[in-house]
Amino acid sequence: MTTKNELISAVADQAGSTKGAAEKFLDALGVVVTTELKRGGEITLPGVGKLTVGRREAREGRNLHTGEKIQIAARNVAKFKASKPLSDAIA
């Protein structure tokens, strides 16, 4: 699935629900995940994995076009760790 509409259709079909209800669910999930990660928390999606916040420290990089050294600022990043059932299923 590469589009939101494809995901909505798949969720609606799997849950035996309407596309409208599936879209509301996915939109609400996005808000809940964003809010929790902004607070520094973590989200566990049973059977899928865990989303957490990690810290990427400042570092030196290079401009690929000019080769010039640039400074890359520190920032928080979302990290995902797949659950064991998911990892086993795709292995």
TrEMBL record:
Transmembrane domains' residue ranges: none
UniProt keyword annotations, A-Z: DNA condensation, DNA-binding
Pfam entry (one): Bac_DNA_binding
Gene3D superfamilies according to UniProt: IHF-like DNA-binding proteins
InterPro entries: Hist_DNA-bd, IHF-like_DNA-bd_dom_sf
GO molecular function annotations of the record: DNA binding
PANTHER family reported in the protein's UniProt record: DNA-BINDING PROTEIN HU, DNA-BINDING PROTEIN HU-BETA
Stated family: Belongs to the bacterial histone-like protein family.
Name by which UniProt lists this protein: HU family DNA-binding protein
Organism: Bosea minatitlanensis
